[in-house]
Amino acid sequence: MRYVKWAIIILFWGTIAAVLNYTLPQHDVVRISDTYEKRIDPGENSIFWSVHDVGSDATTPNRDVFFIQTRKTNGKVMVYRNEDTGWGWPPYFKLNSSNLQAEAADLKSTNEAPRWVVVRHYGWRSEFLSIFPNAVKIWSVDSQDVRIIPWFNIIFLTVFFAIVWALWVRWRRFREARVDPVIENMEDGLYAAGDAIEEQGSRFRKWLNSWKSK
């Protein structure tokens, strides 16, 4: 049972960590090389695509999605999708994908004359699953060495773990005051019942032995 308990705990917190890692905003310093629009037919990976743009026809199975091609400071390529999140999850309430695409197109540059920008996004990039992080905001910076401090993530995670700690402390106190005594009483009752059964069995065996000796 101990292994099952730890497996459940690891699975639970692993799921929480994955959701937070996917949902919380991240920042990349990149150079935008191109922007384009592509017709997408979400399939098995549809969970990683946002809903239709607000005001568009949500009954059609496919839709056009904006993409932003970039190159990171280390030379690696990163491609972002640019979709509205609307009023759904994650709660970015993004409704300006068209404006963001125009800003990205205006910030394009070449390797010879780079213009560095910061892309705030959420999500993961997986070539195997064909999923892309969703760009939320873009702004220009003076240097590729700019340092972005994730204040929102720091504050959110601090508050989150403070709440988890407070709930755990209250649960531990409740368990020690209410749950553990009940369990101990049940265990004492089971032990007492076992002793009584054993005593009755001993008496029964003595009674049988007395009849055998007659």
From TrEMBL:
<protein>
    <recommendedName>
        <fullName>DUF1523 domain-containing protein</fullName>
    </recommendedName>
</protein>
<feature type="transmembrane region" description="Helical">
    <location>
        <begin position="148"/>
        <end position="168"/>
    </location>
</feature>
<keyword id="KW-0812">Transmembrane</keyword>
<dbReference type="InterPro" id="IPR011088">
    <property type="entry name" value="Phage_phiNM3_A0EWY4"/>
</dbReference>
<keyword id="KW-1133">Transmembrane helix</keyword>
<keyword id="KW-0472">Membrane</keyword>
<dbReference type="Pfam" id="PF07509">
    <property type="entry name" value="DUF1523"/>
</dbReference>
